[in-house]
TrEMBL record:
It comes from Halorubrum aquaticum. The modification N6-(pyridoxal phosphate)lysine is found at residue 75. GO terms for biological process: lysine biosynthetic process via diaminopimelate. Belongs to the Orn/Lys/Arg decarboxylase class-II family. LysA subfamily. Specifically catalyzes the decarboxylation of meso-diaminopimelate (meso-DAP) to L-lysine. This is Diaminopimelate decarboxylase.
């Protein structure tokens, strides 16, 4: 093969890969008939998580970052089926609580693939994690406060430790998820070297870590680059210090966190992952054998999930048309909490109505059944005029969707089905009213 034909073959292969594993799955790409059948069978509100797409997202990450350790931030979606899929796809698990660690263990992650990131950890969580670490000594604990290091040492922990650093730069799609510059997370950058060196007397210090908050997107690559380059400098300072000043630390990795953005809006460009990978490698600089680690959460699961909800009330008012649906902020909190945009597609189904494609676009507010003004899934959004009985697909709902679902207003949480190889399986049953009171004890008072 000549160089030129080899190149052509390579390009053709890259194009085939892009076809087989596109950088984004849009809400419009889902098979609407299939979703409608699932809603008929399992009722609404219903989460649908496509495990095949979840796996594709893992594969794209691994091929863009072939030499990096890829750790899935499990808080984005902790369902058992997702954890198993991610484990099989070769990612590690990054856990932010005892509960997440427990679930990752149950899903079969070995100790050397488990990372626990302590954020103001409750004593109960530390007790649990130190206990697990005795059985699984390859587990790594990431801590971001000297106080936390003391609390670990008090419990007899002297194992693998990674220092979380506040790099002083933050990215993020909303102030509530910008963590890189929030003092809550990590040791201040200018103290990190000293804290890491002191920690090495008590623990096996294996890495340094920073997470800039969520939302690395095409416009924010500069702050990502800055964070990464600061972390590279810090690591070099630790592994190769001025011999007059300190002994070198035997680090294994530099973890630059997650926050890989996904295109929520239909016209948002997908992240150019290979470009982000190039920028990351360039910014981190020469790591002299240290591994680079990343911790994507949202990116793994977001476009692999949709929330299906049924229209139950349509109310034209002088101000706007309010479309009432059976899913609300208890099922999908992100719009209420972050003003997050989720695409919404009308899949139709209302009696005596034409297919949604044949209806005029109408500006509507889609509101849930919760007694809160903020309980809307969108405002002033042009949808194919919704009618009572229609099914709506709320897209890009696989990350921080079910995870943030709650029982406010005494609402049982929705069901979830997982799709794999075209098969649908109920992976979380719909909660029943009786589930709302399972933890209540009979009160003494008033009896
Ligand atoms: C939440 C979190 C992540 C993942 O963030 P995404 O935006 O979902 O990629 C990674 N690392 C840490 C420490 C986190 O807290």
């Amino acid at each position: 093969m000549t160089a030129e034909t080899a190149e052509t073959a390579e390009t053709a292969e890259a194009e085939r890969d892009a076809d087989a594993n596109p950088p984004v799955r849009r809400t419009g790409d889902w098979d609407g008939d299939r979703l409608a059948a699932l809603a008929d069978e399992h009722d609404t509100p219903l989460y649908v998580q496509d495990l095949d797409r979840t796996r594709e997202n893992c594969e794209r990450l691994r091929s863009a970052f072939p030499d990096a350790d890829v750790r899935y931030a499990v808080k984005a979606h902790t369902g058992r089926a997702v954890l198993e899929t991610v484990r099989e796809a070769g990612l590690d698990a990054e856990c932010a609580s005892a509960g997440e660690l427990d679930r990752a263990l149950a899903a079969g992650f070995d100790g050397d693939r488990l990372h626990y990131t302590a954020v103001n950890p409750p004593a109960r969580d530390l007790d649990y994690v130190v206990d697990v670490a005795e059985r699984e000594p390859d587990l790594t604990i990431t801590a971001g406060a000297v106080d936390t290091l003391d609390r670990l040492a008090e419990r007899g922990y002297d194992g693998r430790l990674c220092l979380r650093v506040n790099p002083g730069v933050g990215a993020g799609h909303h102030a509530k998820v910008t963590t890189g510059s929030a003092p809550k997370f990590g040791v201040p950058y200018d103290r990190a070297t000293r804290v890491a060196r002191e920690a090495a007397a008590r623990f096996d210090v294996v890495g340094v870590h920073a997470h800039a908050g969520s939302g690395i997107d095409p416009d924010q690559l500069d702050s990502h680059r800055e964070l990464v380059s600061r972390m590279g400098d810090l690591a070099r300072d630790l592994i190769d210090p001025d011999p007059a000043v300190a002994d070198p630390l035997d680090l294994e990795y530099v973890d630059v966190g997650g926050g890989f953005g996904v295109p929520y809006r239909e016209d948002d460009e997908p992240l150019d992952l290979p470009a982000v990978a190039d920028a990351t490698r360039e910014a981190v600089g020469d790591l002299s054998g240290l591994a680079l680690a990343i911790e994507p959460g949202r990116y793994v699961v977001a476009d692999a999930g949709v929330l299906l909800t049924r229209v139950n009330t349509v109310k034209p008012t002088p101000e706007e048309t309010v479309v009432g649906v059976d899913a609300g902020m208890t099922d999908l909190l992100r719009p209420a909490m972050y003003d997050a945009y989720h695409p919404i597609r009308n899949l139709g189904g209302a009696a005596d109505e034409p297919a949604p494609a044949d209806r005029e676009a109408t500006s509507v507010t889609v509101a849930g059944p919760i007694c809160e003004t903020g309980d809307t899934l969108c405002r002033d959004r042009a949808l194919s005029r919704p009618a009572r009985g229609d099914l709506l697909a709320v897209g890009v709902a696989g990350a921080y969707g079910y995870e943030m679902a709650n029982q406010y207003n005494s609402r049982p949480r929705p069901a979830e089905v997982a799709l794999t190889d075209g098969e649908a399986t109920v992976v979380r049953r719909r909660e029943r009213l009786a589930d709302l009171t399972t933890v209540e004890e009979a009160p003494e008072v008033g009896r």
